[in-house]
Each structure stands twice: as structure tokens, then as C-alpha cells.
Design goal:
The protein is mainly alpha-helical and 351 residues long. The protein has three domains: 52 residues, no CATH class; 66 residues, no CATH class; 216 residues, Hypothetical protein af1432 (Orthogonal Bundle), CATH 1.10.3210. The protein is built from 13 helices and six strands. The longest helix has 20 residues.
């Protein structure tokens, strides 16, 4: 695969050119620098390589003057990914094991450490991949996002850990659902859907019989598909009757499902997924939604975006309150666009 966007340093200088095939030593270098992913080119190769945009010196100075690093994001080392990936697969395949609770605690502690070692307050789900199997990857993504949201929400560390444990095990009930149903490429029949909806109840039963998980964790697993308006399942409870762990897991669960490609659906872009979440005010806890929106970075600093006025721009600063409207600098004009704070930019959006 060829990279589709140049890798640049903090001053806008290209370290690796757009269109390059990465060598092993370059990949190792990027990983050492904490760069966990790059954009790649998809589809047929264009025989005419587009020219790299030449950024004028003035523009580079404006970028450097206004550039503010993103807040710390969760990063999992290769060794942690391996341990977490093996751990989550063991849990979902061995729900009756005597070491189930201990293994679940160990995996949660790995994720907890990854969050707190650099005081992470944001998450990039593109960097969390621990498995090619959807259920395992989804469980780790949801647990990690839930802990980040919970931290932003103001939960104490003990509850953040419990929340992560509930997020990790929120779909463990799917171990009782036939694989052919879990992986069915087409739409489910009404009967199949009713069985699928039982997975949160199955998960509750699996954990409850062990007598090692708190009532808060059990409710987080049982209620993660409940809606604030009462239109969820399996109990149809609403509002404050839904445990706060479940309300947080619900947002992380929906977001990760939206941005993940499955055999029966295309993945939504992160931007589209966020906009969908923002329309679900009747179904989701508003305060939890605000904590979620403050935990997602859609346009990392230094990424190149296209504006609705036709200009390409580099992101120089993000806002936790207006994640769709960061501050950017036009590459050719050197103009600073404060998309959230400048009313003169009200009609400019990122395409």
C-alpha cells in the first residue's frame, strides 16, 4: 500500500512524501515517534501523480505560530495490543473458565494503564485494532472509549475501571448466539432479531452467576441497549432508571458500530458518525453525549482538509466544544480560519 498523505513534522516539513511505499525501517521510525497510523491510497493507481502542494514560507510561519498539539490520546503498544487481543478472545471463548474474572480484570488493567500513563483524554479508534474479528475489536474499542468518556464525565478512577470492565464484557452474551446469526450478511428476520436482542440479558446472566462482579457492572452490561426515551431493550426502562455505566457504554457502542465496516454495511466516516450521534438527543444522555464529543478528535492537528471555499488547509488547533470546526490555515493564502470562533467563517465548512 502507498500512503496517500505526506507524513510531516511539527513545522510542516515532509518526513515521508505522499505516494511513498513504506519500508520496514520507516514504519519502525514512525512507531517510535508515536505515529500509529497513516492514510493509504485505495483503488487503482493514478498514472499522473498529483504534485505536492508547495507551502509558502509565510504560510509555514502562520502554521507554526498557531499550532497547538492535540490533547493526549490513548496509545496501545504492540505488546499491549497482543496481550489485550489474546485476553479478550479467551474471555469470549471461555465464559465458564475459573480464571474468567481474573483475565477480565487483567485486560481492563492494561487498558486503564494505557489511558492513565500519559493522562489521555481522547481516543483515536483507528489506532486501537487488536483483532480482525469484529466482536473482539469492538469490545476493546467500546471499553477504551467508555473509560475515556467516563473520565471526561468526572467519574473517580475506581468507577472508570468498573466502567471499562463492563464495556469489555458488554457483548459477552453474544457467545450464546449462533455464529451464523452473528455473521449473517443480510437483514435479520424478526425471529432472529428477537434472539439477537437477548444478548445483553445473556451477558448479565453469565456474569451474575459468578458472584464476582458488582451490581453496577451487571447493570452496565444488561442495560447498554436501553434508550433514554424508553424505546430500548431488553427491559424498556428510561431516564434515570438506566445505570450511568450503561448510558456511557451506549454512546461508545453506537459510535464504534457506525464507524466499523461489516459484511452487511459500509462504515460511516468519523464525521458522519459524530453527526448521527448528535441527532440522538432523545435516546442518549445529553451530559454523556457532551463528554463523548469532548473525547473525540476528528481532524488531528497537521491533517490536511478541504474547505467549502475551495481552499486546502492544515489543521492547527482543535476545540473540545466544537469538534467539527477546528482552527485551520489555508495552505496557499496563509489565512487563519477560526471556524468555531470567527463569525466571518460561519459559512465555511470542512468537506
Amino acid at each position: 500500500m502507498r500512503i496517500d498523505q505526506a507524513v510531516v513534522d511539527g513545522k510542516g516539513r515532509a518526513l515521508i512524501a505522499k505516494g511513498a511505499f513504506l519500508e520496514d525501517f520507516q514504519i519502525e521510525y514512525l512507531q517510535e515517534k508515536g505515529i500509529g497510523g497513516v492514510y493509504i491510497r485505495e483503488g487503482e493507481e493514478d498514472p499522473k501523480e498529483p504534485e505536492e502542494i508547495q507551502i509558502p514560507r509565510y504560510t509555514q510561519e502562520v502554521i507554526e505560530k498557531n499550532r497547538v498539539e492535540d490533547c493526549a490520546k490513548v496509545r496501545l503498544s504492540e505488546s499491549v495490543r497482543k496481550r489485550v487481543g489474546e485476553g479478550i478472545q479467551y474471555l469470549y471463548h471461555n465464559t465458564d473458565s475459573d480464571s474468567f474474572a481474573e483475565m477480565a480484570a487483567n485486560v481492563t488493567n492494561e487498558l486503564m494503564s494505557a489511558i492513565f500513563e500519559n493522562d489521555a483524554v481522547a481516543v483515536d479508534i483507528g489506532l486501537l485494532k487488536v483483532s480482525d474479528e469484529y466482536t473482539f475489536k469492538h469490545s476493546v474499542d467500546v471499553a477504551t472509549m467508555a473509560m475515556i468518556i467516563g473520565k471526561k464525565y468526572g467519574l473517580p478512577d475506581k468507577q472508570v475501571r468498573e466502567l471499562g470492565l463492563a464495556g469489555l464484557l458488554h457483548d459477552v452474551g453474544k457467545s450464546r448466539i449462533p455464529n451464523e446469526l452473528l455473521n449473517k450478511p443480510g437483514a435479520l428476520t424478526d425471529k432472529e432479531y428477537e434472539l439477537m436482542k437477548q444478548h445483553s440479558l445473556f451477558g448479565f446472566e453469565i456474569l451474575k452467576k459468578r458472584n464476582t462482579f458488582s451490581d453496577d457492572i451487571l447493570k452496565g452490561v444488561l442495560q447498554h441497549h436501553e434508550k433514554m426515551n424508553g424505546n430500548g431493550y431488553p427491559l424498556g426502562v428510561k431516564g434515570d432508571k438506566i445505570h450511568k455505566y450503561a448510558r456511557i457504554i451506549s454512546v461508545a457502542d453506537v459510535y464504534d458500530a457506525l464507524v466499523t465496516e461489516r459484511s452487511y454495511k459500509k462504515a460511516f466516516s468519523q464525521r458522519d458518525a459524530v453527526e448521527i450521534i448528535m441527532t440522538m438527543t432523545a435516546e442518549m444522555d445529553i451530559e454523556v453525549m457532551k463528554s463523548f464529543l469532548g473525547s473525540v478528535i476528528l481532524y488531528p492537528v497537521d491533517s490536511i482538509v478541504e474547505l467549502s471555499n475551495g481552499e486546502k488547509a492544515r489543521v492547527v488547533e482543535n476545540s473540545t466544544e466544537y469538534i467539527l470546526r477546528p482552527r485551520v490555515v489555508g495552505l496557499k493564502s496563509g489565512k487563519l480560519y477560526d471556524l468555531a470562533g470567527d463569525m466571518n467563517c460561519a459559512n465555511v465548512i470542512i468537506l
